[in-house]
Amino acid sequence: MPDAADPLADYSDTERAIFDAALQVFAREGKRGARMQEIADAAGINKAMLHYYFRDKETLYEEVFGFTMQRFMASFGESLEEAPTFEETLRAFIDGYVDFVRANENAMRLMVNENLTGGSLLGTHLREAMKAGDAPPKFLVETIASAAQAGEIRSVDPTHTVISVISMCLFFFVSQPTVKIVHPPAENNWDAFVENRKDHLFDLVYHGLAPS
User: Fold this and answer.
1) Contacts for 53 with CB less than 8 Å, ≥ 6 apart
2) What is the pTM of this model?
3) How far apart are CA 122 and CA 140, in angstroms?
4) Which of 10, 54, 109, 199 sits at 20 to 30 Å (Cα–Cα) from 183?
5) From 3.40.1280.10, 1.10.10.60, 3.40.50.620, 1.20.58.760, which CATH number describes the 1-75 domain?
6) Domain limits, the chain
7) What is the Cα gyration radius of the chain?
8) Model pLDDT for residues 23-40, shown as the tens digit of each residue
């Protein structure tokens, strides 16, 4: 198993190149549409070498998806655990989620495609992460529940709230062409829009949860 801080630490340079190429192809074509020859070409190797490392497309897809999930978990670092208040935990979650998607849009597309095709592999990894206590969404659910019990925020369903937060963090990336039409400044400076979006999401959720 690769190191949690560097999910590719135990892989060779060739394997890293294969992962990068496969992630790009799987994100663009989906698992069904991707071809091993296309992945080999993108990695700069021949197809025989690709099969030497990964015997078939299903095996490669599972490895790439597992790596992607590890990288997502590691992207939060210790920021959630170190946040002493609900306010800081919410901020760290929104910033961490949005920053990961912005820096890893192919990984985002891979996970969205996996959801659209049934999500069985995603479910396996997410259940394992939640059981181990490593899933950032689970940590935020527990933080919301504790904050509501302490009266720091109003009483809400923690799981529904986290689903709403995740949706808001993800949707504007998934629908980026539409967002740029609806909000023209995003077309001119996407990075500035994303930073403003992070602030807006935090303000909307945090003040929306304020006790009445």
Assistant:
1) 14, 15, 18
2) 0.85
3) 19
4) 109
5) 1.10.10.60
6) 1-75, 76-212
7) 19
8) 999 999 999 999 999 999
